[in-house]
Write a structure and sequence with these properties.
Elements (H helix, E strand, L loop, with lengths): L5 H28 L3 E8 L6 E6 L4 H4 L3 E7 L1 E2 L2 E2 L3 E5 L9 H4 E7 L2 E3 L2 E5 L3 E6 L5 E9 L2 E10 L5 E5 L7 E6 L2 E11 L4 E3 L5 E7 L2 E9 L3 E9 L4 E7 L1
Parallel strand pairs: 1-20, 7-10, 9-15
Antiparallel strand pairs: 1-17, 2-3, 4-5, 6-16, 6-18, 7-8, 10-13, 11-12, 11-14, 14-15, 18-19
Length: about 250
């Protein structure tokens, strides 16, 4: 027979009230244990200064301009290095790539690739549009240690033409786009194999959120200056300020 006397009910209520703070504390501790971290910082140019390569504009001057085109190889902002991708390698988790990395669009406008440095996920879709009323020829190379390997070579003779391809790289880390019709047109596409990456902003700064605790390799990539690597120990729920110098 169940005791439903007022005194018995009151005793049970008091026991539950005493138990709830313990349950809440345990949940808070579990959440704290699972808290992810942020890795942020800045990529510095070190001894490197802004550098360009000059090309003479010899054709399609009504669209491409006249005189010459200075193609940037190294861009800086103060001490910071621009056009750099930061990658955190070795992170285990179910994070998905952002939509911006699953499909990348590069536009050819005024005989320039825009944007000229982007990130595409491994197996992602690259779309190239011709917005100029002149012929462009897109030559896409996979950049490997043994040299460039052609992955696509397609003409776009008319304005409005669109070419789309998916890319799985076997050896290289990036694609380089050039135009056979205009030698001063260059673009680079870094192929990311992990969603834990960031492109530096206009001050060379980056931030990667949602990083679980662990030991990882922080890697940076620049289309002309190459790579840097460092080992990084990430702790629970913390923030780590990193500086990488080229």
């Amino acid at each position: 027979m169940i005791d439903t006397s007022p005194s018995r009910i009151l005793l049970r209520a008091l026991r539950l009230t005493a138990l709830f703070p313990s349950i809440m504390m345990a949940g808070a501790m579990a959440g704290a244990e699972a808290a992810d971290s942020s890795v942020y910082g800045q990529v510095l140019a070190g001894p490197h200064h802004p550098q360009v390569e000059r090309y003479i504009i010899a054709k399609d001057v009504d669209v491409c301009g006249t005189g010459y085109r200075d193609v940037p190889l190294v861009r800086t902002q103060g001490d910071a290095l621009l056009d750099t991708v930061v990658i955190l390698e070795g992170v285990k988790g179910g994070r998905r790539f952002p939509a911006a990395a699953r499909k990348v669009t590069i536009n050819q406008s005024a005989c320039s690739f825009e944007p000229n440095v982007v990130v595409l996920m491994q197996g992602g879709e690259l779309e190239v549009i011709n917005s100029d009323p002149v012929l462009h020829n897109i030559h896409v190379n996979e950049m490997t240690l043994s040299g460039p390997v052609t992955r696509m070579n397609v003409s776009q003779p008319e304005k409005g033409g669109i070419v789309t391809r998916t890319f799985e790289l076997n050896q290289g880390t990036a694609l380089k786009l050039t135009c056979h019709a205009h030698s001063f047109m260059h673009a680079h596409v870094f192929i990311a194999r992990t969603p834990y990456y960031a492109m530096v902003d206009s001050h060379g700064r980056f931030k990667i959120d949602g990083v679980p605790a662990g030991k990882y390799t922080l890697r940076t990539w620049h289309p002309y200056l190459g790579e840097r690597r460092m080992i990084l120990q990430v702790k629970d729920g913390g923030q780590q300020d990193i500086q990488v110098e080229y």
